[in-house]
Amino acid sequence: MDKAESSAVLVTGAAGFIGFHVAQILLQAGVPVVGLDNLNDYYDPALKEARLNDLKNDPNFSFVKLDLADRAGMARLFEEHRFARVVHLAAQAGVRYSIDNPRAYVDSNLEGFMNVLEGCRHHGCRHLLYASSSSVYGANTKMPFSVHDNVDHPVSLYAATKKANELMAHAYSHLYRLPATGLRFFTVYGPWGRPDMAIYAFTKAIVEGRPIKLFNGGDMRRDFTFVDDVAKAVVKLLEHPPQGLPKGVSKPAGAAPDPGSSSAPWRVYNIGNNQPEELNKIVALLEKELGSIAQKELLPMQAGDVPATYADIDDLAREIDFRPSTSIEDGIARFVAWYRTYHS
Q1: Starting at the edge strand that comes first in sequence, how are the strands of the sheet with 127-133 ordered?
Q2: Cis before 241 (ω within 30)
Q3: Does 310 qualify as catalytic in the annotation?
Q4: pTM (2 d.p.)
Q5: At what angle do helices 328-342 and 198-208 cross, to 10 degrees?
Q6: Which residues of the chain have pLDDT under 70?
Q7: Exposure class string for 203-240: b at 16+ Cβ within 10 A, else e
Q8: Where in the chain does DSSP place strands (E)?
Q9: Cα 130 from Cα 183, distance rounded (Å)
């Protein structure tokens, strides 16, 4: 007799920034969560442990310390639980880190993602949500970035692995009718954030009286997206698996392929604020909240970086009737309040 599927949602990267917030929302709704993380040292593991300790206060949360690239361990996890829903957020992050540490991205983002796909394929997963990135837009210059635009020109290995994830997921959706939704996140920030991200790094430098590094001379614009908005969108999308066309039905002959959707049960969405902000404005808001003036070190553009990001979120709004609502002023104030408490 086949084992029954689990009522729990698997959240990979549960000790990570976005994964932690997604797990929180699910637990608050009474949904059991199995959290997976390898607790690596890409940034301070103490922050990951602190997030994890918060989640462990809920009896519906269970934790598995496991590396995505552990093929046998991942197979056992899926065999044991038969997850009906998977939110795959674990990955090796960071554009600049991929310049010097490319193999970390192959292990986690490619091999690890394959292990997730195989687990979903063999054990009846009914919806896989997975993290992609705004980095896939690479050399695109048309603004705002749309999921219906071609994204064949990544400018970093990190971005290339995320585009590869979208392609791998599409192949499994086509071959095995696995409903899969890719999430192109745009510069997520907020409480419990990653220390390597700009707002966290700027805050720490200003507090410590060190100069902040502004690349491209500070002439950068980012679609900063508050983490609570991101997590709410992810959880809402979890209830909307893509349907695709019925088996055996195909698009009309001659119809142009759409990079953002498919006849297979596969979709990608931008998860962004739809409101790019200049880096100098971000610095000014941090100065106001912290009561200190930043020392600025102006530097050239970094390899693999892009001058601007801007998300078209019309598809997201149509699908789940959701648009981010947190202003950059409110978001930064809430982040700084958390930063003071955490680092006190």
Answers
A1: 61-65, 33-37, 6-12, 83-88, 127-133, 180-185, 266-271
A2: no
A3: no
A4: 0.94
A5: 60
A6: 1-3, 247-256, 304
A7: bebbeeeeebebbbebebbbbbbbbbbbbbbbbebbee
A8: 6-12, 33-37, 61-65, 83-88, 127-133, 180-185, 188-189, 212-215, 221-222, 225-226, 266-271, 277-278, 296-299
A9: 6
Distance in angstroms (rounded) separating the CA atoms of residues 157 and 135: 10
| Whole-number Å distance between alpha carbons of 113 and 216 | 33
CA distance 270 to 320: 13
Rounded-to-integer distance, Cα 225 and Cα 340, Å: 21
pLDDT tens per residue, range 202-212: 999 999 999 99
Find the catalytic residue in 158, 269, 310, 339. Answer: 158
In whole angstroms, give the CA distance from residue 330 to residue 327: 5
**CA separation for the pair 234, 33 (Å, rounded):** 15
pLDDT at 259: 84
Q: Is 140 helix (H, G, I), strand (E, B) or coil?
A: coil
Query: What are the structure tokens assigned to 83, written together?
Result: 């997850």
Q: Are strands 221-222 and 277-278 parallel, antiparallel or unpaired?
A: antiparallel
The pLDDT of residue 211 is 95
Of 80, 77, 61, residue with least CA distance to 14: 61
Three-state DSSP class for residue 276: coil
